[in-house]
Amino acid sequence: MSKKKKIDSVNVKGFSKPANIIFTILMALVALTCVFPFIFVIIISFTSEQSITMNGYRLIPSEWSLDGYRYLIEMKGQILQALFISVFVTVVGTIVNVVFTSTYAYAISRNSFPYRRFFTMLALASMLFSAGMVPSYIVMTNMLGLKDSIWALILPMALSPFNIIVMRTFYRRSVPDAIIEAAKIDGASELRTFLQIVLPLSVPGIATISLFAALAYWNDWFNALLYIQSDNLVPLQYLLMKIQGSIDFMMQNTALGAQVTGGVNIPKEATRMAMVVISTVPIAATYPFFQKYFVGGLTIGGVKE
């Protein structure tokens, strides 16, 4: 009887119940430290500027306000246009990046590809060394003629060396050579083998690099700074930076700020936090859809029972 109780007190992974409770509490605290900053930013975005000036940042502000969001709503036309550009660039760019990355990684993961070592070293070299900003700018503007074009926001990040290495490792561990050889014996071409056999087995890896690519495209503002001049092609991140720069400039020049705003104080801090919320919520809302496959992609190579 005592032996049975001893077995019941230990779970499958070998931890006792008290240890499980302690680890659960610790993980909950770690998760809270990750989520709390964003919750705090949301609270500040709903705080009045006067309360922030007098009391600083507080978890429970003395006065709630929507002034930060009202200030941004006044520019809703520009923000909605910039949001559309960001969504379009993120979706199309992620698709382009995943297609190029997955096919490149699949080629260098196969032992039958004679130039796999050369292209692997090429990907590693491009990850370690860069030609610099000036050559990239010349290529994009003079050679490709993509200045002030939507493709100038997509093509510079269309191929990710880090994602290539991730997918190469995923293919080698998750797609057995025997399956591919069986498909070739049955008469399947390389393209058909890749589309009908390899890709269904690689959904966790594809989801992982898709999340990485989507985050990179969504947060990118530097390419817009370099290549975009038209207001209707500005992405959301760059527009919010321009708004923040305009607010800082007007606050430093009190007379100009009063003239532009009609004497109304600009909610600087609340607007700044509201911009963080607006730029973070859309991409954060997509994460739960990738989480299942993302965890599978990170734990690839684990021992199966």
TrEMBL record:
Regions crossing the membrane? 21-46, 79-106, 118-138, 150-171, 194-218
Say yes or no: keyword Transmembrane present.
yes
InterPro entries for this protein: MetI-like (IPR000515), MetI-like_sf (IPR035906)
Q: Which UniProt keywords apply?
A: Cell membrane, Membrane, Transmembrane, Transmembrane helix, Transport
What topology does it adopt in the membrane?
A: Multi-pass membrane protein
Q: Does the keyword Ligase apply?
A: no
Tell where it localizes.
Cell membrane
Q: What is its main location?
A: membrane
- The ABC transmembrane type-1 domain covers 83-287
Which Pfam families is this protein grouped with? BPD_transp_1
Q: Which residues form a coiled coil?
A: none
Q: Member of which family?
A: Belongs to the binding-protein-dependent transport system permease family.
Protein name per its UniProtKB record: Carbohydrate ABC transporter permease
